[in-house]
Specification:
about 20% strand, about 230 residues, alpha/beta, two-stranded antiparallel sheet
Length: about 230
């Protein structure tokens, strides 16, 4: 099985080139001022031109208003919009029609019931992304927190097969996460950083190779030591 990889929260040309060079299928640009990965429209437009035609460009927003979405459409022209807020099914459909880009709808998974509830987005969103909720209620960041959920819930619930898995992934656990969840697409941000918002090209390359089974990895650790969802 070929696994698609998204590297999210890129903000410099060097790290963008590192992600594309490593074989990332999607590159993510974050439009959320409270995030350390936030980029301005000018910066995003410049990065998008570097990536265009080489990797799918994803613009991540959080409950964005129409003005911001229109500005992203005009300046960045992303291939996908990733909606990481509380957007309803109706809002997802409206954004998809208004912007003319494909949509990734992020859903927070705190229990198996959240996966079942997410089925309402399957007819409208092009991809449903399953992420962990913030570690503490009221945290400012809706994603990129480096925490995960129980990946076995996805294997049991069996959502639409083209779902994307996010949350707490890194080069050391992504192979286990894929095998456990059945994911065909994975998304990483903090798991390939040396500091919040600062991507590490070596970690990016390791993550892509591991996810795509392009390198050998160490044998699984003993059950009590294995890096599993927190």
């Amino acid at each position: 099985m070929t696994v698609s990889v998204k590297i999210c929260g890129l903000s410099t040309e060097d790290t963008l080139e590192a992600a594309i060079g490593a074989g990332a299928d999607y590159v993510g640009l974050v439009f959320f001022p409270r995030s350390p990965r936030h980029v301005s429209l000018d910066r995003a437009a410049s990065l998008a031109e570097v990536a265009r035609g080489r990797s799918a460009i994803v613009a991540l927003t959080v409950d964005a208003d129409d003005a911001l979405l229109e500005a992203i459409r005009e300046r960045v022209a992303p291939d996908f919009l990733q909606l990481h807020g509380h957007e309803s099914v109706e809002r997802v459909a409206d954004i998809r029609r208004r912007v003319g880009a494909r949509v990734i709808k992020a859903v927070k998974v705190g229990s198996p019931a959240d996966i079942e509830s997410a089925r309402i987005f399957e007819p409208t969103a092009d991809i449903v992304l399953f992420d962990a909720p913030p570690p503490r209620a009221g945290d400012a960041l809706p994603g990129g927190n480096g925490v995960s959920f129980d990946w076995t819930w996805l294997a049991t619930a069996q959502p639409r097969p083209d779902f994307m898995l996010s949350g707490g992934l890194d080069p050391d656990n992504v192979r286990f996460a894929i095998a456990t969840s059945g994911a065909r697409s994975v998304d990483v941000s903090s798991g390939v950083e040396r500091a919040p918002g600062v991507k590490d090209p070596d970690l990016v390359a390791r993550f892509v190779r591991a996810a795509k089974h392009l390198e050998q990895v160490a044998a699984p650790a003993a059950e009590e030591d294995r890096h599993e969802p927190r």
